[in-house]
């Protein structure tokens, strides 16, 4: 891994071939403090998200959490780095790490991904609280005892999509703790 120290601003173009063999180009601009490494193929990866992206992630989560009486989350840089490390291989699967984790792909940005996670609320049964594959993203978003979140994203040229990952500390979706952590929406 090569540290980049003298780059002030770099513009990197990622080229991907879609299934219809059409070429698309996505331009990404990174500041020096966001650059971390150049991979073997010369692509520069981001170390972390911009302050504006972090704010959108926190604001979106906290808006939904407030609806369910859950306190606001703070940013967790360690959880973000963990997620960033995990998605570098562009494998769309859970890490199995120590954090609670939500994944998304095929969305235009974090906000739309988080919105989709929250929209699972319509399927949650408060009379029979517990885990469901249909509502697990939602329950993690509003899990009352979770204190912080860290997220990362990576564009994956092979699949031509961006993977979004959010890691939560302490994790949610703990059996036997749904009733006190996933509260009905306030009126």
Main features:
disordered N terminus, 8 strands, alpha+beta, 27% strand, four-stranded mixed sheet, two-stranded antiparallel ribbon, 187 residues, globular
Could you please describe the fold and organization of this structure?
One of its GO terms (cellular component) is extracellular region. InterPro entries: Allrgn_V5/Tpx1_CS, CAP_dom, CAP_sf, CRISP-related. It comes from Linnemannia schmuckeri. The protein has 187 residues and is α+β, with helices and mostly antiparallel strands. Helices cover 26% and strands 27% of the residues. The protein has helices at 51-67, 77-87, 110-118, 136-142, 178-181, and strands spanning 9-17, 23-31, 35-38, 44-46, 74-75, 100-105, 148-156, 161-169. Helix 1 runs parallel beside helix 3 (110-118). The longest helix has 17 residues, at 51-67. Mean pLDDT is 80; it is low at 1-46.
Largest sheet: 4 strands, mixed
Backbone shape: globular
Low-confidence stretches: 1-46
Structural class: alpha+beta
What is the average of the pLDDT values?
A: 80
Strand content: 25-35%
Share in helix:
25-40%
List the total number of helices.
5
Distance N to C terminus: 52 Å
Radius of gyration: 18 Å
In total, how many beta strands? 8
The run of helices and strands is EEEEHEHEHHEEH
Strand order of the largest sheet: 5-7-8-6
Give a brief outline of the structure.
The protein is α+β, with helices and mostly antiparallel strands. Helix content is 26%, strand content 27%. The strands form three sheets. The protein has a four-stranded mixed sheet. A two-stranded antiparallel sheet has the order 1-2. A two-stranded antiparallel sheet has the order 3-4.
């Amino acid at each position: 891994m090569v540290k980049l120290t003298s780059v002030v601003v770099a513009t990197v173009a990622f080229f991907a071939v879609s299934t219809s063999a059409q070429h698309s180009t996505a331009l990404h601009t990174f500041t020096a403090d966001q650059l971390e490494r150049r991979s073997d193929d010369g692509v520069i990866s981001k170390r972390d998200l911009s302050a504006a992206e972090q704010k959108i992630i926190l604001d979106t989560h906290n808006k939904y959490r407030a609806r369910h009486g859950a306190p606001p989350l703070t940013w967790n840089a360690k959880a973000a780095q963990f997620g960033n490390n995990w998605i570098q291989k562009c494998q769309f699967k859970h890490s199995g790490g120590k954090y609670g984790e939500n994944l998304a792909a095929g969305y235009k940005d974090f906000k739309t991904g988080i919105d989709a996670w929250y929209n699972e609320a319509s399927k949650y049964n408060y009379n029979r609280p517990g885990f469901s594959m249909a509502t697990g993203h939602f329950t993690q978003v509003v899990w009352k005892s979770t204190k912080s979140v860290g997220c990362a994203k990576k564009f994956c040229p092979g699949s031509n999509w961006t993977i979004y990952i959010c890691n939560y500390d302490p994790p949610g979706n703990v059996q036997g703790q749904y009733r006190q952590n996933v509260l009905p929406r306030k009126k």
